[in-house]
């Protein structure tokens, strides 16, 4: 326990009563129990104008389970709150007779050196809090309302069972054995509401992560997982059936949680835009107005959970924005904006300590759907948008250092460049778009729309697809690469698993993904634009690129397009082109020929392909 996390009290304070324990062999007392002289009730203490109600309620909730050792207790609270707030809260609770603290004397032979040892509820407060147990009749009415709302249009026989469970205040299986009742209220409520949600989602053909549902019901991500067997038994289904609707997650196996507090990120982006742009007086007023909107959203999200942190930030924010408008020196304005940026980072850290806020924004990772040389792609549920998306997560820096040594940072640069290309430079209907981005702390990640399948998966599952379908897919790939080349950029990693297909009511929509190897001649980084390493998926990669990535040009993409065309038309790997010909075989062979004999532009390639298809049609 670091020194500043040790609660110090004045044992002679008029509001504190102490009793000390002495032992014959020691000159000074060995222990001291401190408690408040006056007690006015827990509610009175919680509702004083100190702004500490949320942290006090959290402290009391922990202490209701029994006395706590001081060190682990403080460490647990500091995962959500600051030491300053905790220190103030403990002093108030102690003086108001709500808690008691036992102190141990570190040097009873020589002097008095009190160190907190045990923290517990004062018996007066304990009596009050125990009396504040749930009103079961009220709770049952609320549960009934929830069930009726969820199943108002349902014809499932489970609806009658659920209402009967609420009427009887107990849940029985088909043999009549009691599974749960109100004496184990968390278990009872969890089963009833989970079964109701299961029926509702099953009838709508929808799915939700169990972690998300647990957050909604209890603000505890793992609680419902404790009752999975009982939920399945009560609903008369198997665990596999339950998991098909209440999706399991793998959050606990990740290197770090994937959390992004949207309104705070938006505020930070606005400040960064001001820093990077030519600061003009009219633009300052515009951005301040936008930042005010973000602050309003932050207040709505956090409520009073971070009241002191938000109050401190608002003081800094108001001071910075006032000075920003008043001063005319660009240098001073830039200094003010950097101060504001730093304060936003501090606010972010404080907000991320609040479990309820983390649960509201943390991505729920359902499963891994792909892995490359420097990142993994996961299927995740975004609780903020209530949608399932894909999330590309960079491996931790330690991995790159261990595997690649000093070259490890190159992979981090590649990831950042991919994000920059997809967010700031590339906008096309056939290039994947990025949604949320996290490039601070670890790990780095970004989200994108979840594809129905990759081209590789589609080919495997659609051997009977028509030539017309296949050509329509290829035309969209060409459209995306043509746009890329017009922007003087090259993909360099075109392969079936990097071509994503989305099912829409208008047919298949194709998007090109994975720009980790994309070449940008305008890149300021020598290492990312002129890498000497060999990369690419061999069957679809220009041989010259495999020998030296730095030698790759737009001709490398044309080679890959020829390989993809063959793959689409034959459902076979491109190396089979010498033995199994396809329609437009001459186009495939020229696209994959040596560079000097290859198509020299994508327009040349596209024209020959279109002419070939027309001639075959005639």
UniProtKB/TrEMBL annotation:
One of its GO terms (cellular component) is cytoplasm. Residues 363-618 form the Protein kinase domain. Pfam families: Pkinase (PF00069). InterPro entries: Kinase-like_dom_sf, Prot_kinase_dom, Protein_kinase_ATP_BS, Tyr_kinase_cat_dom. It comes from the Bacteria. One of its GO terms (molecular function) is protein tyrosine kinase activity. Keywords: ATP-binding, Kinase, Nucleotide-binding, Transferase. ATP binds at residue 392. This is Protein kinase family protein.
